[in-house]
Write a structure and sequence with these properties.
- By secondary structure, the chain is α+β, with helices and mostly antiparallel strands.
- The protein is about 35% helix and about 25% strand.
- The protein has a 6-stranded mixed β-sheet, with no helix packed on it.
- β6 and β7 form a beta hairpin.
- It is elongated.
């Protein structure tokens, strides 16, 4: 049986802890993006992309690529990269309308597109490599370009409609109550008339009996 000294046990425990931490960081990269972004034609839009990692960003090893494709079946077109520095790649589609708007110290890789065009609509890919992370991070953003914004909702119209509906319901309920009261009143009158007729009939019967007795 092998016995370990306390110092050896401490060193072994530290090694195991480091292995556990290293193992947990092997696939630790997460890329955070908004999957769907809507932009108004002719305005500026910000396309956000950030990432989390167990490792601090090292500018000498870090790599980033932004690409565009009209659909998932089309070839990707690279328009920005990072290798030691941010390098926008001028393309026929974007010209110089794309700017880096992130902060590498905060793991923010966001970009902006000025004077958005209908042809800018499509899929934007944000690729990240941050060694010693072994995996490449990948974020996918779908950009839709609209020519006009939907009209704002008018709360006064909603309130007016609600008030109208409420008023109509109140009138219906009031009408039902009035009809019910009228019917009940008529029913009571009919019952009273029947009772009077019964009483008159009894009175007539008693009078006829008395006259018959007198004649006898």
């Amino acid at each position: 049986m092998i016995r370990m000294l306390p110092s050896q046990r401490t060193a072994a425990a530290s090694s195991v802890a480091l292995l556990v931490i290293a193992a947990s960081c092997v696939s630790s990269m997460d890329v955070l993006v908004a999957q769907q972004i809507n932009a108004l034609n002719g305005t500026m839009v910000r396309i956000s992309c950030s990432f989390t990692s167990c490792y601090r960003l090292d500018h000498t090893k870090f790599a980033m690529n932004w690409t565009y494709q009209e659909t998932l079946n089309d070839t990707e077109e690279m328009f920005m990269t990072f290798k030691n520095k941010i390098t926008p790649l001028r393309t026929d589609r974007f010209g110089d309308r794309v700017k880096f708007a992130g902060n590498l110290d905060k793991n923010d890789l966001s970009i902006t597109i000025s004077d958005v065009q209908l042809t800018d609509e499509g899929i934007y890919n944000c690729y990240v490599r941050n060694p010693p992370d072994r995996i490449q991070g990948h974020g996918i953003i779908q950009l839709s370009v609209v020519t006009e914004l939907p009209p704002p909702r008018d709360s006064t119209i909603a309130v007016a409609i609600g008030a109208s509906v409420g008023g109509m319901l109140a009138l219906v309920i009031l009408s039902m109550v009035v009809v019910k009261c009228v019917r009940r009143h008529k029913k009571q009158e009919l019952i009273s008339d029947e009772q009077k007729m019964e009483e008159e009939g009894k009175t007539d019967g008693e009078g006829g009996t008395e006259e018959g007795t007198k004649q006898l």
